[in-house]
Design a protein that fits this description.
Elements: H1 10-18, E1 23-27, E2 30-33, H2 34-50, E3 58-62, H3 67-78, E4 82-85, H4 92-102, E5 106-110, H5 114-123, E6 128-132, E7 142-143, H6 144-150, E8 166-171, E9 181-185, H7 186-200, E10 210-213, H8 220-232, E11 236-239, H9 245-255, E12 259-262, H10 264-272, E13 286-289, H11 296-306, E14 310-315, E15 322-325, E16 339-340, E17 345-349, E18 364-369, E19 376-377, H12 381-387, E20 388-389, E21 392-401, E22 407-412, E23 417-419, E24 422-424, H13 426-434, E25 439-449, E26 453-462, H14 470-478, E27 489-492, H15 506-520
Helix pairs in contact: 1-2, 2-3, 4-5, 7-8, 10-11
Length: 522
Amino acid sequence: MQIPLQPVFQFLLDTAGKYPDRVAVRYYDQSMTYQQLLDRVDRLATALAATGLQKGDRAAVMFPNRPEYIISYYAVLRAGGIVVQVNPFYTEHELLHIMEDSGASWILAAADQADKLQSVTAQHPVKEVLLFDDSNGKGFGVDTERVFADTSPNPPQLQIDPQEDVAVLQYTGGTTGRSKGVMLTHYNLVANARQSYQFSSSVIEIPGEVLLGLAPLYHVYGMTAVMNLGVLIGGTIVLRPKFDAGEVLEIIKTYRPTLFSGVPTMYIAMLNHPKSAEVDMTSFKSTICGSAPLPVEIIRQFEARTGAKITEGYGLSEAGPVTHRNPMNGVRKPGSIGIPFPLTEARVVDLETGTKIMPPGEPGELVVKGPQVMKGYWNNPEETAKTIRDGWLHTGDIATIDDDGYFYIVGRKKEMIITGGFNVYPKEVEEVLYQHSKVQEAAVVGIPDPYRGEAVKSFVVPKQGETVTEEELISFCRERLTAYKVPRSIEFRDALPKTTVGKILKRTLVEQELERMKSANR
């Protein structure tokens, strides 16, 4: 396949030209055709240019999943700007860091963010704040409804260099430290959307697909696998601002979605909802799991329940994000992240030097190369040089490769537990815990131990209505794991801390455990 040299917003221009009356977005009782979407995008792009936004200027876009996100995203790009992706649930402190680091001078947000934005803009001056749904008159920023009514669609005609011009600054989730701005070019994002289509083209109809838009669009996974892919194929994107398993089951009954890109917690919650068995899920053609590894037992249960296959994949913000996926047709290996995308190379290299290629079955760091790999970190050449070496993106994830060329993630370099001199990969222990019929969620971490260096500890959320003991689970693990991999302790929780995309925050669990140990020693 070839990647066309075009800006990201060309997806919308092409689809609106071919299928103007096709419904682009559904949001509760609202719907918008592709022609209506393009009209609002062009009006907003025109207004942004009139406020002084020029090519390369940064604009923060901060919405939950709703049509205004899609409008703002494409409008900023259409005006030549760089979209700074912002989680709308960020605290004032987190938002201020991103604004200062990116140098964003425009903010597009919902009116209910006004109080937070007033405080942030007092510390980081901006040129314009555009608020959506300002029906109550916040007295702050610009009400975009007036912009749409008063502005004719006449966006600037710009020359975009897709391979050099940055389209999006995607800030890393901060699960391993201070977040950094990932520079994704127009070419990176066009490539990844087209790679995603190519991998699923055998089941995708253009137009005609209905995408279940639950993965947050402000995160690179939802941005590519739901929005950009959806617009590329002329799909109808059904959006909801937050995940609620009961509501999702109603959406499935009403709109019969055909494509779903979710995260493990979504699959787990849908399977365990009391009304799950009452809903026919056979409308799905393709369901994809990303963001974090999906336990094999959950794959088995979901497929037995729905008849739909889950194709697991892998990605990271620095690669736009997808690099691997199990094939739609052909060999699919549960528990594997599959094979590299078209035009993508991948290797497993030694953890010490990152240069020696490891043989099949031996763990090492996963490194990738391809058209979706970022340009670098924003204003951070040192971290860029550490992460991209000789053209290879060092992912920080530990993987193995089998004799057939399928890759398996066994953990993160920083999550690997060394206990008594032995390496323990948390995912292996978690896979066993998920096999227990009373376990809904599990996370395994290493905690300080005076004898072993680190001890294996598990945090478990039992299934609703079930009672399980620590002894029961430890005994279950002993039957299935080498002794040094068995958790030394298990703590039960009602819920586990997660990012907004459903990734379990193991760093938070470790910090909580360290604080508990410190308090106990006082």
